[in-house]
Amino acid sequence: MEYNDSNFVNEENEYEDQTVDSETKQYDNSNKIHNFSGKAGPYFSNFTHFLLFMWITKHQIGCEAYQDFSNIIKHPDFNISDVPYSITTIKKYRDSLPLIPFNGYDVKLNDRDTPSTSKPTRQAFVFQLKRILQHIMLNPSLRDQMYFGSGIYSEIRQELWHGDIWHKSPLFGTTYIYINNVMYNFGDFITYYDRNSNTSINYGRIIAERILDFNSLPNLLKSRQRKNQKNNTQKLWMTDENEMIELNWIESKINVWLMDTKKPDNYDYCINEIVYKSNNKWNTRSVDLRHKHPIEYTPIRKISDELPVFKIFFDIYIDKFGPFRNAYHAIGGIYLQIENMTQVMCQKLKNHFLLGFIPFGANCNDVLKPIIEDIKELENGFEMDLDNKRIWITGGLGNITSDLPKGNEQAGIKNHNANHGCRICTIHHDELNNMSFDLAMGGRYHHKTSLQFVELDNTQTHGELSQQYGIRNKPSIFDNVTRD
């Protein structure tokens, strides 16, 4: 049916005697109405449009839901005679689908956050990480587009395997390399030739920071005290700068004592300071004020040489939302993103996997406990069947994504409006506009924060220390897995 001006009747004169206050807003007062003939007329062009309009209005059908419905009924294989009258007939097919099972756990509810009529416990639903990974690995359309190798250096970092975490951590990348039949572990200190000279020797670290000797220090830092050797041991200085070292430049391994660690029996060099630049000025800080190399806190687990190894790098995303329209009863969602996928794949909603729900009034840590156990199992590794072959699956947590309040909670830091509520540094709330604050010197380092939690646990003045350090009464539950 064609639509033109003859399908509409102008009803302007019908209400011209009625006056409306200029401040009063009117709704549903169209000056034109349809004038269709037929069984659904005068307001609808046909009976199908009439039924659809009534269905959409009655059940508040949205645009996306209607688009799906439209695609279904217009599909060439859709047969109207196969449509059952009862929705139960359709729902029963769910029982035979290969869905991922999930577990229910009783968790306590905080009676101060819930109505007085609420029960003291409620079930939290959690999917097993192992089953999700098995579901992904058995899907060739996903597995064949995922990357499981060691870190790749790229000037344009587009994927997670171009980043530092993938390069350095034994959980995701290679742990050692062979050069001239000599094994070098990632994190080993080395001497190497300068790229412009075959005789000049530099100091460095495998997949890590650049190391300086006294002659390479900025002139401002070349003091007599730094030049003097300690117990006939030559001093070196660490930097925050990563340096790309070609394998053919490497000369040999050296023994270096980082003086914030246990003193080794034999060493040739020692490092007690880090050279860095702050506010356009060279400075030094203690070597314990650093983000440790993953090789220093990640245990090296033996992997079977007989099985193909697949290392999983994943991101956990935690957020709360209100499922109801007129009442705010926030529940939390815990989601999983496999970062072995390309960024294009990660952007697709179908490649985000639900790990669990946090009931309204429940403690997030109570729901995360079984997930933490699953992450530990993945760190240790396990066998899995893939296309009638046995493979070895391992990996770990790479990132945690969340909003500001939940991010502070998972870092064990007080809320962002506290005196020291930044999870990156220890700046005071009143100095947030201080652009000259030294982030390296005043940064938060995981091993230092862990010591603060130990001190907090062994003192009776919890409130004072907690406020002084800007930390919560208990560390994050994610401290039970390998992370920094």
Please describe what this structure looks like.
The protein has 4 domains: 32-97, no CATH class; 109-155 and 302-402, no CATH class; 176-297, SH3 type barrels, CATH 2.30.30.490; 410-484, no CATH class. The model is unreliable at 1-17 (pLDDT under 50). The protein has helices at residues 47-59, 63-73, 87-91, 129-137, 140-143, 164-168, 224-227, 294-297, 343-346, 364-380, 404-411, 446-457, 462-469, and strands spanning 8-10, 32-34, 102-108, 121-127, 176-179, 182-185, 189-193, 201-205, 209-212, 234-242, 250-254, 256-258, 269-278, 281-286, 309-321, 331-338, 352-358, 382-386, 389-402. The protein has 13 helices and 19 strands. The relative contact order is 0.10. Strand 7 (189-193) and strand 8 (201-205) form a beta hairpin. 21% of the residues lie in helices and 25% in strands. The strands form 6 sheets. Strands 9, 10, 12, 13 and 14 form a 5-stranded mixed sheet that branches. A 5-stranded mixed sheet has the order 17-16-15-19-18. It is α+β, with helices and mostly antiparallel strands and 484 residues long.
Largest sheet: 5 strands, mixed
- Terminal CA distance reads 66 Å
* Proportion of residues in β-strands: 25-35%
Query: For the residues shown, what is the average pLDDT?
Result: 86
Total E-strand runs: 19
